[in-house]
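#onboarding

Welcome to the new folks! Below is a worked example of what a typical request in this channel looks like: someone posts a single protein sequence, and someone else replies with the predicted structure as tokens. Don't worry about understanding the tokens yet, we'll cover that in week two.

Example request:
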Amino acid sequence: MAEHDTRVGWGFDAHRFRAGGAVVLLGVEVDQTRGINATSDGDVAAHAVIDAVLGALAAGDVGDLFPSHDPEMDGANSMELLGRVVGQAGDAGYRVENVDVTVVSESVRIAPHREAMRGSLAKVLEIDVSAVSVKATTTDGMGSIGADEGIAAAAVVLISSP
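Example response:
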């Protein structure tokens, strides 16, 4: 690692909806009309951030670190998993500087939950909320997400060493 090292990581995740449960994004319940088909809690936004941090560290991906075949992952809280990855970054001498998350969904509304999501993510990443962006878009009816069969998220992070 250089004296001062700055790295960028990008992450993406997508899951299908399922009947029952709730949609949780960045630890915040945003839709109670359906759930996410996933081994963990299916928090696609948290998974995208996990992959972004791991990518910046060149340390694999969420499936490497938290494999879906591991019984410990059944119903796992994705924000707790993200906290473990933030700890891994710290152990490697890095801290997250900022994060930008985009949720892609045809029907899940982010705006009413944006500030709670930003606060939750800032807390886990141990950064100021001013360094956390959460936004949303649709696919204007295109593809499986446009058909409202699922939800996706992408994230980019900047990490640095002192």
